[in-house]
Amino acid sequence: MSDPNQTLSEQIEQLVREHLETSRRAAAAAVERAFSSASMAPRPKAARATTRASGHRRASAEVAALS
């Protein structure tokens, strides 16, 4: 007859292994869903930076004053 503590320990280890494998599969599935939905979703348009009107340059005196 085997030791009851040894049997209980083996059962606990088996349950932990099963739990870890189930958790790993669930995490892998979640990552797969996240990446597949991210690649299919439309990307938001980047906000355009405000630019100054072309051709408008600061005078050299203004640049000197700013520096």
Which helices and strands appear, and what pairs or packs with what?
Layout: H1 4-40, H2 60-66
Description:
With 67 residues, the protein is mainly α. Helix content is 66%, strand content 0%. The chain is built from two helices and no strands. The longest helix has 37 residues, at 4-40. It is elongated, with a radius of gyration of 32 Å. The termini are far apart. The model has no long low-confidence stretch (mean pLDDT 84).
Brief account:
This protein has 67 residues and is mainly α. It is built from two helices and no strands.
Helix content: 55-70%
Briefly note the structural class of the backbone: mainly alpha
Shape: elongated
Number of helices: 2
User: What value does the average pLDDT take?
Assistant: 84
User: Could you list the spans in which at least 5 consecutive residues all have pLDDT below 50?
Assistant: none
The largest sheet is: none
* Amino- and carboxy-terminal Cα gap: 90 Å
* Beta content: under 5%
Task: Note the run of SSEs as H and E.
Answer: HH
**Rg calc:** 32 Å
How many strand elements?
Answer: 0
Summary keywords:
mainly alpha; 66% helix
